[in-house]
Each structure stands twice: as structure tokens, then as C-alpha cells.
């Protein structure tokens, strides 16, 4: 991380690779892997026919909220590691997640599940909550962990 709190790669001149601490490289790789695995798991879980789903005892709306908050959070973290500025993170996440959620809902009838507009709204709410909370946490962390003299 640089003194401004952004990953070292974000402050490097275009076309060059900045030296990044080893821990930052590993955390970035882990975040990417977790995002990919979580997205595959979410896609798979939302396309299992209802008669094959285990009873979890949790409301479907809660699962939607938590699931999309989780995916959005992971995507947000990956974009921070990539050094994307706030406006680019917002554009990508606020465009990608609602579109993905809509496609997810629209393809569920192919697997004998229902396409529900309310589920899409809850997915978007989860995305918005996670983006707001993560950005607040990111800004607070940059202030708290600011290096002396910066």
C-alpha cells in the first residue's frame, strides 16, 4: 500500500509495475480466487431445482441479501487491490451486479425455479449496502492506518 492508502500498483506510472509487498500480492490473489469460487458457488446454488435444495430454515430474501452483499463485497475488494478509483469501482459494481442478478433471475425458470422481481430488488439492496459499508470502512481504515508523516 502507498502512503495515500491505495495499493502500490495504483500509484505506478502507466506501463510500469510498481514494487508491491509480498503480502499485498498474496492477499490480492486470495481475494481474486475467493471471488471466482463464490461466484461459481452462487450461480450453481441459484440454479439447483427446488426439490433438490436442502431446507436451510432461512428466508430466501435473507439469502439473496447476504449472497449479493457478499459477491459485491468481494468484487469491491478485488477492485481496491487493483487500484481502481472510486468512480470506476462504482460504475463496474453498480452496473455488473444488477445485470447479473437480472440474468440470474431470468434463467431460474429453466431449472423449475421462480423469477421474482422482489428477489432482484433485494439483490440490489445487498449490493448497495455492501458498497456503502465497504467504502466507509476503506476510508476509515486509510485514516486510522495512515503512516506518520503522510
Can you characterise this structure?
By secondary structure, the chain is mainly alpha-helical. It has helices at 22-45, 60-81, 86-107, 117-144. Helix 3 runs antiparallel to helix 4 (117-144). The longest helix has 28 residues, at 117-144. The chain is elongated. The mean pLDDT is 87.
Question: SSE layout and pairings?
Answer:
Elements: H1 22-45, H2 60-81, H3 86-107, H4 117-144
Helix pairs in contact: 1-2, 2-3, 2-4, 3-4
Report a brief summary of the structure.
With 150 residues, this protein is mainly α.
Order of helices and strands: HHHH
* Domain tally: 1
Number of strands: 0
Oligomeric composition of the shown chains: single chain
Alpha-carbon distance between the two ends: 13 Å
Helices, by number, come to 4
| Unreliable stretches | none
Keywords for this structure?
mainly alpha, 0% strand, elongated, 150 residues
Amino acid at each position: 500500500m502507498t502512503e495515500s492508502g491505495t495499493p502500490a500498483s495504483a500509484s505506478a506510472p502507466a506501463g510500469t509495475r510498481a514494487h508491491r509487498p509480498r503480502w499485498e500480492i498474496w492477499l490480492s490473489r486470495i481475494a481474486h480466487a475467493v471471488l471466482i469460487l463464490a461466484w461459481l458457488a452462487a450461480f450453481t446454488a441459484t440454479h439447483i431445482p427446488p426439490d433438490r435444495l436442502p431446507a436451510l430454515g432461512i428466508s430466501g430474501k435473507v439469502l439473496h441479501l447476504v449472497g449479493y452483499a457478499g459477491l459485491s463485497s468481494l468484487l469491491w475488494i478485488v477492485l481496491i487491490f487493483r487500484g481502481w478509483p472510486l468512480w470506476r469501482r462504482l460504475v463496474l459494481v453498480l452496473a455488473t451486479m444488477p445485470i447479473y442478478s437480472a440474468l440470474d433471475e431470468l434463467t431460474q425458470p429453466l431449472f423449475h425455479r421462480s423469477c421474482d422481481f422482489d428477489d432482484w430488488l433485494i439483490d440490489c439492496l445487498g449490493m448497495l449496502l455492501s458498497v456503502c459499508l465497504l467504502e466507509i470502512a476503506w476510508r476509515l481504515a486509510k485514516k486510522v492506518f495512515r503512516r506518520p508523516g503522510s
